[in-house]
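Residues pack. One example:


***
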Amino acid sequence: MPELRHDPIQKRWVIIATERARRPSDFHPEPKDGAPAGFCPFCEGNEDKTPPEIFAVRGPGGRENGPGWDVRVVANKFPALRIEGDLDRAGVGMFDKMNGVGAHEVVIETPCHDLNLADLPAPHVERLVSVYQQRLNDLKKDPRLRYILVFKNHGVTAGASLAHPHTQLIATPVTPMTVAQELEAAREHYTHKERCLFCDVIRQESESGDRIVYDDGQYVALAPFASRFPFEIFLAPRAHAHDFGDLSAEGGRGFARALRDVLGRLKAALRDPPYNFVLHTAPNTSMGPRRPGYWATLPYDFHWHLEIIPRLTRVAGFEWGTGFYINPTPPEDAARFLREAGEGNPAP
């Protein structure tokens, strides 16, 4: 019998279509692009083919805008938003508009063209996580920017236009709707119960254990009760923390270890599926004028987390028309498959 499940964080309903239940082997891996290998602007030695680097982690002998780097950050050559200019907010009758001010950066994860994030050595993933944090904190210094999203598109189906492993950051002058809904749900829960909604979810899921994929005592990864997509993963610190930018060195190592493990399990179980991940952290509280008291409880009610979404099914008319999602893999089954998959990563 299909089930309707409700997500208390996004306040949406999901259909778990048990009669359509699908195992990892029922999903076919994304066909690889058969085009011959060509020029890649992100490969080492092609640094002059990208915009100048904003930030880089270099090894001994590495030079600025040249070879010898481990992780490199550049401006997106075709940005969704531009850093220059003023917002110039204005009304247009009943509508509103502002200039497309923001930032759009690319984090080139490794000089190696064919090395997935799940395959990178643990110390390298730690450096990558540190770069995410550094760029997030640097962009928050700009009072025009209200939110910074860190996200990754892996595979053509997930929206990657270049195969070379990379992550992106987009900073916006408004809080994105999905994040705003999470913030509102978190604040409402805290107002009524004086507890963090995310902490309550993590606590309950840990007691059950049915949907837990990874738990090392510091970080927990789980298949959400109302998963929108097959093998969707929610990854978060166990201890309450609202801002990824405040992550300690130890916390960064733990997050890198958890991220590498979970991506390795997905790769092993689903034969390197296309996926997106998005990092939801606190908004930029140092930005310009805002509603008085709106984020007064933010350090207590919000909990930063990463959402990993394998792209195994398509969103079609029913989903667009209703806001419902249909998931053919119960999250309990997905979690069990991923627990059994093992890490799937080479030794550090």
